[in-house]
Amino acid sequence: MSLGTPATAALFERVSALCLALPEAGREQQGRHADFRIRGKPFAYFLDDHHGDGIVSVCCRSELGENVDRARRDPGRFYLPAYIGKRGWFGIRLDGEPVDWDDVRYAIERSWRLAAPKRLVAEKEHGGTA
Q1: I need a labelling partner for 121 at 20 to 30 A (CA). Which of 51, 81, 105, 109 fits?
Q2: Which DSSP category does 41 fall into?
Q3: What is the pLDDT of residues 61-90, one digit of tens each?
Q4: CB atoms < 10 A from the CB of 22, how many?
């Protein structure tokens, strides 16, 4: 993956580790961004200067209205990404300090649950093989 800086590459690796730890998660990379999928459905995006916005972030699915609430509540940490923000996604900025990695992990896991089949989510939550 061709990322802007070594620091951005380290952020990408950390986000990748969180996403790929989830059952059946996969990753596809294109230039300076990557998408993470569960059975073909995206649940997270790593974006580095997406469409020239200068932002390094992870974008996640959200419950109805959560994306707007997060962006309104703390616009320094959260934003509505181009194209997908209007479809319920929000971005967590990774290019500021400090990054709340517990929140990043929680948002990624929640996003995975929204995209994954219900049976797989139930298996994961009940300690099954998933």
Answers
A1: 81
A2: E
A3: 999 999 999 999 999 999 999 999 999 999
A4: 21
Which residues lie closer than 8 Å to 38 by C-beta, 6 or more apart? 22, 23, 24, 25, 26, 112, 115, 116, 117, 120
Give the residue from 37, 20, 19 showing the smallest Cα distance to 28.
37
The secondary structure of residue 21, as a DSSP letter, is: T
Tokens of 44: 């997270």
Q: Which residues pair with 46 in a beta bridge?
A: 34, 58
Condensed to tens digits (0 to 9), the pLDDT of residues 93-126 reads: 999 889 999 999 999 999 999 999 999 999 888 8
Q: Could you tell me which residues come within 8 angstroms of residue 64 by beta carbon, excluding any fewer than 6 positions away?
A: 88
For residue 33, list its beta bridge partners: 30, 47
pLDDT digits (tens, 9 = 90+) for 14-40: 999 999 999 999 999 988 899 999 999
Six-digit token string for 82: 């181009």
Compute the distance between CA of residue 69 and CA of residue 51 in angstroms, rounded to an integer.
24
